[in-house]
Amino acid sequence: MSINDQLAFVVRNDAATSADPVVAAEQATLIEPLARPLSGVVRVPGDKSISHRSVLFSAMAEGASHVSGVLDSADVRSSIGAVRALGAEVNLEKRPDGSLAGDIRGWGGLGPSQPEGAIDCGNSGTTVRLLMGVLASWDITVELTGDDSLRRRPMRRIAAPLELMGARFAPEGATTLPLSITGTRGLAAISYDSPVASAQLKTAILLAGIFASGTTSVHEPAPSRNHTELMLPGFGVDVEAAPGEASVAGGQSLHACDVDVPGDPSSAAFMACAAALRPDSTIDIENVSLNEARIGFARVLERMGADITLKPTGSAGEEPCGTISVSYVEHLRSCEVVGREIASLVDEIPVLALVAAHAEGTTVFHEVGELRVKETDRLAAILEGLSKLGVRAWAEGDDLHIEGKPGLVVPEGLVFDSLGDHRLAMTWSLVGFTGAHPVSIRDFEAVRVSYPGFRADIERLAK
Fold it and tell me: Distance between CA 193 and CA 400 in Å, rounded?
């Protein structure tokens, strides 16, 4: 079986497995305390956001793009499966480090092909939302669906501005998957004031705007991730960008280019927090994206008193990258995280909440309502998980409050449910890895969405 066939097979089976709540509930993994402190050097997998874009943009381009360092995970496989269904030629091979590398020949000016059936995006919100922007400018009709979790996530925020540009969605007014999009080659440009800071929303509009008549612009209430703005010029698309806003002129096209994907700072955050919580630990996390829109977690750890430093070492394309070094310190303190910071660390809030549970004082994360519409209701899950630890935590509107307990002693026999959410699976596993007692995690395998080798890496650092 070729790597492409393997990827397609795993995409289908990942979606089927995660959609079965009975199977998920029965899966439990015992996480035992690390025998030694974390020590040494680790490289986390390729950035998930950049990997998605490298696949999707290459598929849109004329010619064959070479991509390397691509994250091999369930979410990225969903994007690979989607572009193959739409006519792109994907020839990727597994590298010794676990990443994917190879060529993707795009459909270019011919446009995507009409797929034989619905495109299943699995658990990947990035795949489905960016695909809406990709498909909006072509006169084909494509049904988009996903697993149980993805079918609960909001899609109207993407569909609404694309409808203003001329795309059509069915059922009319649909807020969740499954839905069908019918594109048009007569897209009209828009100037859109986004109600949320969302890189997925911004990217969908910009991708549609590349083929629209006129200049399309997006204005956000706070800056979101800017990987799209950094990557598109490499594919020959001029983008005007500033913090909180971006625009693209219509009538452009994408041409092939090379993309090297750096390490994922969201994955690095879990390693960093593990070292911050396990006494006597010192680690270096190499070749990580140090994009300012992605390292908010490091700034929060600094304010909490953690010993963390970021050292730039180069770049991968337009993405700055470097090494994150973390050493354990005995005393952590609470801090306040304001709304304008949230977009730069929203995926790391669960694990930062766990660190806050060990800090002195009350930590407040402001304006985190977006957590309610992630892979699961992460805000509710954080509150439930911290209550199991005996930590007082509560929500006031969209603000999360955590009253830390320095010297926190974790009860024995704890069982956490990841709810099929990779970030929750990794967060609650740190309770076991860095604590005094084992914990059990239901559906720990959800980590394959972003960091399949997470457990192996963290245990290797403790040998």
Answer: 27
CA distance 267 to 455: 12
How does pLDDT run across 113-159, given as a tens digit for each residue?
999 999 999 999 999 999 999 999 999 999 999 999 999 999 999 99
List all residues 6 or more positions away from 419 whose beta carbon is below 8 Å from its beta carbon.
375, 376, 381, 443
Q: Where are the domains of the chain?
A: 32-46+263-460, 48-260
Q: Which residue ranges make up the annotated binding site for 3-phosphoshikimate?
A: 48-49, 53, 198, 200, 347, 374
Annotated binding residues, as ranges? 48-49, 53, 125, 153, 198, 200, 347, 374, 378, 423
Two tokens, residue 353: 């909440």
Give CA–CA dist 266/263, Å, rounded.
Answer: 9
Intrachain domains 32-46+263-460 and 48-260 with the same fold: yes
Q: What is the pTM of this model?
A: 0.90
CB-facing half-sphere around the CA of 43: CA atoms within 13 A? 14
Burial classification of residue 184, based on how many CB atoms lie within 10 Å of its CB (0-12 exposed, 13-18 middle, 19 or more buried): middle
Which one of the listed residues 147, 260, 347, 421 is annotated catalytic? 347
At what angle are helices 48-60 and 199-209 packed, to 10 degrees? 10
What kind and span of H or E run contains 104? strand 100-105
Q: Which fold has domain 32-46+263-460?
A: UDP-n-acetylglucosamine1-carboxyvinyl-transferase; Chain (3.65.10)
Give catalytic status of residue 347 as yes or no: yes
CA 444, CA 426: separation in Å to the nearest integer?
Answer: 8
Binding-site residues for phosphoenolpyruvate, please? 48, 125, 153, 200, 378, 423
C-alpha Rg value of the chain to the nearest Å: 21
pLDDT band of 26, cuts 50, 70, 90 = low
48-260 sits in which CATH class? Answer: alpha beta
Mapping DSSP to helix (H, G, I), strand (E, B) and coil, where does residue 348 land?
helix
